[in-house]
Design brief:
By secondary structure, this protein is an alpha+beta fold. The chain has five domains: 5-182, P-loop containing nucleotide triphosphate hydrolases (Rossmann fold), CATH 3.40.50.300; 223-332, Elongation Factor Tu (Ef-tu), domain 3, CATH 2.40.30.10; 344-417, 2-Layer Sandwich (Alpha-Beta Plaits); 422-524, Alpha-Beta Plaits, CATH 3.30.70.240; 528-642, Alpha-Beta Plaits (2-Layer Sandwich). 25% of the residues lie in helices and 30% in strands. The strands form six sheets. An eight-stranded antiparallel β-sheet has the order 11-10-16-7-8-15-12-13. A six-stranded mixed β-sheet has the order 2-3-1-4-5-6, with helices on both faces. Strands 21, 22, 23, 24, 25 and 26 form a six-stranded antiparallel β-sheet that branches. Helix 8 (356-369) packs across helix 9. The protein is globular, with a radius of gyration of 29 Å.
């Protein structure tokens, strides 16, 4: 259905985690009649059970709403976004697909770290920002002060900051009117702040193939005007901001249309992967998929490609029409996204070795729905074949592991989380190491990734937050006042961040302090390679890179935990933690004993017992020798328990 772009408003809701985005979205769905009351349920747009259980939004969700204002029917395209910093890439993609944002702040908590981070991203994207205070039905003390802080942040008048309640629906009608009046209608293609692709032919994965480029060079194009510029209004161009896999429809691309229109059964083209296909289905989100005959400029919707190979589609790519009118598809590429750089690396291994191919397929499908996920084949001598995954944070990889189990019925075992180090070898060569077992034993220098962090905390918890420096390498701290709160900026190694820094921050501040971060640089560090030996066998899956000052503590903790978990054998097992070949911690699992009986009670000869005991000792020595020569079998369950925090 073709609509007048002047009657379309594309917007998203951005906020810190747990500030009520999804609840407010529920009220918007109700107020516009998008979802019938009998079908309504809490967190309606959070379609995953995992989101409901954790009470957080993990995936952005688009929905089209209709609302009549001053006798004109408007189309409101909402994208509900996550609030946790691990999913900030989801937010960045949503911002590139809309023209405005509602900055939502919980009246009981005030502006927090991710509020500031999301505001900065929206501002850089050039969006119109509408400030709103949520949960006003609670009549919280200081709500007016929070509204004043929002107005100072956004630059709008304090009276323009809306008061709403996602629980009761208070102020929702005023919010809908503000969306129509203050957010501009969609325009044709525009640049964004997310690393736009240069207007040139793309290559391999993000660019068009050289073969096609050679054919296109020097040919005239009806898609160009007299000055050589694109006639954008005549050519369909849409940005892919998300995607997912459907068993019957193949890969489904979530798109924002910037130019032109296209209809079902038309031939379309993916610029990044040089792939053409016939559109199997297209439509909009209601929020379930609802088919249309055509989709045009300014609209947000979906296109079912029918493609089955997950590698055929890239997030941030451009879909355009496939026609002889276009001779140079490279010129049609819309500004895309910066490829997210993983900061946490974890290897996944299927509990059942036969599930390897299923795991590979599942990760490919997950990547369609989570473009920040990176993975490549890996192997472990005890756990077999698996995949090394790259993630944006600890929560990101935990959610991925749970999704593999829930959505694909795959149980996995994961390695210790690690980060990527830059290591200078003895020959002067620099290498990147993101797997602990590949860390060289001899090197000149090591650089580790460091994040810039921003903490927002009530004044009374400032001292407790500052004391975190005693247990974490939190450095270069500076503070500033922000309303009734204090904002701390500093640096923290990513290895410390993924340990349990966020949990400790919540603990010392009674849950009031909040954190946002961004990986910014690499700095020199002192780390060592901690290896674990069981019965003189190096267990590669337990190798870790630890900070030098923590090495003895981590070594002792690991061997003690292994002693508890490993099953006893017929021979003595030595568990050793080594650094550079030097043993820094050791535990011993005694051999199993066989009851020899009480020979002295009923006249038995003690010498017989001694003979049997010596025979048993000789057998244990043979078993021990055999155990050190052969592969030690460590049950998968031991890895799983040891890797639990």
């Amino acid at each position: 259905m073709f609509e007048n772009p002047q009657n379309i408003r594309n917007f998203c809701i951005i906020a810190h985690v747990d500030h009520g985005k999804s609840t407010l979205a529920d009220r918007l769905l109700e107020a516009t009649g998008t979802v019938e009351k009998r079908r309504m349920k809490a967190q309606y747009l959070d379609q995953m059970d995992l989101e409901r259980e954790r009470g957080i939004t993990i995936k952005m969700t688009p929905v089209r709403m209709k609302y009549k204002y001053k006798d004109v029917e408007y189309t409101l395209n909402l994208i509900d976004t996550p609030g946790h910093s691990d999913f900030s890439y989801e937010v960045s993609r949503a911002l590139a697909a809309v023209d405005g944002a509602i900055l939502l702040v919980d009246a009981t908590q005030g502006i927090q770290a991710q509020t500031l981070a999301n505001f900065n991203h929206a501002q850089k994207a050039g969006l119109k920002i509408i400030g709103a205070v949520n949960k006003v039905d609670l009549n919280p003390y200081g709500a007016d002060e929070i509204a004043r802080s929002i107005s100072e942040l956004t630059g709008e008048n304090e009276k323009d900051v809306l008061r709403v309640s996602g629980k009761t629906g208070q102020g929702v009608e005023e919010l809908l009117k503000a969306i129509i009046e203050r957010i501009p209608p969609p325009t044709s293609a525009r640049n964004t702040s997310f690393s736009p692709k240069p207007p040139q032919l793309l290559r391999q994965g993000s660019l068009v193939s050289d073969n096609r480029a050679a054919k296109q060079r020097g040919q005239a194009s009806e898609s160009l005007d007299e000055q050589g510029g694109l006639r954008e209004k005549e050519i369909f161009r849409a940005l892919i901001f998300d995607s997912f896999y459907h068993e019957h429809k193949g890969i489904v691309a979530n798109i924002r249309v910037f130019n032109g229109s296209i209809k079902r059964e038309d031939e379309a083209y993916l610029v990044a992967t040089d792939t053409n296909f016939k559109i199997k289905e297209l439509g909009h989100f209601a929020p379930e998929l609802k088919t249309d005959e055509t989709i045009g400029v300014g609209q947000i919707g979906y296109i079912a490609t029918g493609l089955k190979n997950p590698e055929a589609l890239k997030i941030g790519d451009t879909i355009t029409e496939y026609t002889s009118r276009i001779q140079d598809y490279g010129q049609l590429a819309l500004p895309g996204y910066q490829n997210p750089q993983p900061v946490v690396f974890v290897s996944f291994y299927p509990e059942e070795a036969d599930d390897y191919e299923s795991l590979k397929m599942a990760l490919g499908k997950l990547k369609l729905n989570d473009s920040a996920l990176k993975f490549e084949p890996d192997s472990n001598e005890f756990l077999g074949r698996g995949f090394k995954g790259g993630f944006l944070g600890r929560l990101h990889f935990e959610i991925t592991a749970e999704r593999l189990e829930r959505e694909f019925n795959l149980r996995t075992i994961n390695s210790f989380p690690s980060v990527s180090y830059k290591v200078k070898k003895r020959n002067g060569e620099w290498i990147n190491v993101d797997t602990p077992k590949d860390f060289p034993s001899d090197y000149l220098e090591v650089l580790e990734p460091v994040s810039k962090i921003e903490i927002v905390t009530p004044t009374e918890y400032l001292g407790a937050v500052m004391r975190l420096q005693e247990n974490f390498r939190l450095r270069d701290i500076n503070t500033r006042s922000f309303g009734n709160s204090i904002v701390l900026n500093g640096t923290l190694p990513v290895a410390e961040l993924i340990r349990d820094f966020d949990d400790q921050l919540k603990s010392v501040s009674a849950g009031y302090a909040s954190l946002s971060y961004e990986v910014s640089d690499y700095k020199k560090t002192e780390v060592v390679k901690l290896e674990i030996l069981v019965a003189e066998h190096n267990v590669g899956g337990l190798t870790r890179i630890v900070y030098k000052n923590d090495m003895e503590h981590e070594a002792r903790k690991t061997v003690e935990r292994l002693k508890e978990l490993l099953p006893r054998q017929q021979f003595t097992q030595a568990i050793q933690a080594t650094i550079g070949g030097k043993i820094v911690a050791r535990e011993t699992i005694a051999a199993m004993k066989k009851e020899l009986g009480n020979f002295g009670k009923n006249g038995g000869d003690r010498t017989r017992k001694m003979k049997l005991w010596k025979k048993q000792q000789r057998g244990k020595e043979r078993l021990k020798e055999r155990g050190t020569k052969n592969k030690i079998d460590i049950p998968a369950g031991v890895f799983k328990e040891l890797l639990k925090k």
